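Key result, reporting period 2: structure in, sequence out.
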């Protein structure tokens, strides 16, 4: 949205107006790329945390079942 918000179709033929339009276009593209990179890094971080929690939950559940079986056998 930011990239295309600075484009004025009426001023495209004016050489002095092209510079600010290109600057706005590049700013919008840079922000989109930055947000994509941040989203990718956060996705990797969240997946690592999810895997750690998933493995820990299985470990805790396994120990709880084993403890219940030991107490049931007594």
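The corresponding designed sequence is given below.
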């Amino acid at each position: 949205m930011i990239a295309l918000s600075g484009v004025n179709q009426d001023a495209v033929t004016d050489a002095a107006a092209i510079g600010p339009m290109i600057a706005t276009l590049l700013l919008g593209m840079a922000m989109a790329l930055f947000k994509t990179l941040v989203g990718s890094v956060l996705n990797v971080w969240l997946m690592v945390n999810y895997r750690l929690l998933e493995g820990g939950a299985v470990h805790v559940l396994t120990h709880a079942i084993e403890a219940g079986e030991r107490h049931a056998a007594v």
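The radius of gyration is 28 Å. The chain has a mean pLDDT of 86. This case is discussed further under Risks and Mitigation.
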